[in-house]
């Protein structure tokens, strides 16, 4: 393939070097039956995933100078289903925490949920209506550390109570970062989540809102999860839920945060929407 003009979302050599060992190991573990190495460079496949996540374009609207949708989706789905996307994400998270002088895994996480509208065509059996926020669609739950890095993500129908999201998040946190001993949540989570956390050895603390506060007031330590939601909003594919499968929605979060962390590790900034 001839040299193409780069997109702002493309991996730099430095950022690709952080991801490439995982992709190369995956490729070696999944050889083609025919021995064919594949028509498209793995770096270009990842560039296409990042381009779509950043711009929010439909599969059929991927630029012609990137690999075609069938090839890109093949790898996106494979890496989603076997956890390669999360492996890349977690390795970058450990490196980012260590660069900030912290242990690889945290002892404290912050949980929160966000209800989102879905695009036309998203299966109705994976969506619902958030009665409190009056939002039809899906509910994304995040567990983040004190740096705002994602430890776990869960996507359910918006009709799911925050308790259901909180329990699912705690289950994933306990298996993915068994060092966690404390979880901070807001008043949308109830004693059911507190009790479930106790079973897992996690002290769930409900942070009460000051009744005198008017409007949005950042809560100590809990504000980092709001910052993470804002960071994810820079990736347009995450502003609305376009994915047919909730697992794909979760994968988009891992890819977006992997992009963010790779940029932080190499000292490059995430482009904003200004001028877009």
CATH T-level topology of the domain at 105-239 = Nucleotidyltransferase, domain 5
C-alpha end-to-end distance: 28 Å
Order of helices and strands: HHHHEEEEHEHEHH
> Rg to the nearest angstrom?
19 Å
Specify the CATH architecture of the domain at 105-239: 2-Layer Sandwich
User: Could you state the CATH homologous superfamily of the domain at 105-239?
Assistant: Ribonuclease H-like superfamily/Ribonuclease H
Number of helices: 8
Uncertain segments of ≥5 residues (pLDDT<50)? none
Backbone shape: globular
Tell me the total number of β-strands. Answer: 6
Main beta-sheet annotation: 6 strands, mixed
Helix content: 40-55%
- The CATH C-level name of the domain at 105-239 is Alpha Beta
Mean of all residue-level pLDDT scores: 92
Strand content: 5-15%
Can you put this structure into words, describing what you see?
By secondary structure, the chain is of the alpha/beta class. It has a domain at 105-239: Nucleotidyltransferase, domain 5, CATH 3.30.420. The protein has helices at residues 13-29, 42-55, 69-82, 84-99, 162-176, 191-199, 223-232, 246-266, and strands spanning 108-116, 128-130, 135-144, 150-157, 182-185, 203-206. Strands 1, 2, 3, 4, 5 and 6 form a 6-stranded mixed sheet that branches. It starts with 12 loop residues before the first helix and ends in a 10-residue tail after the last helix. The relative contact order is 0.15. The mean pLDDT is 92.
What secondary-structure arrangement, pairings included, does this model have?
Elements: H1 13-29, H2 42-55, H3 69-82, H4 84-99, E1 108-116, E2 128-130, E3 135-144, E4 150-157, H5 162-176, E5 182-185, H6 191-199, E6 203-206, H7 223-232, H8 246-266
Parallel strand pairs: 1-5, 5-6
Antiparallel strand pairs: 1-3, 2-3, 3-4
Helix pairs in contact: 1-4, 1-8, 2-3, 2-8, 4-8, 5-6
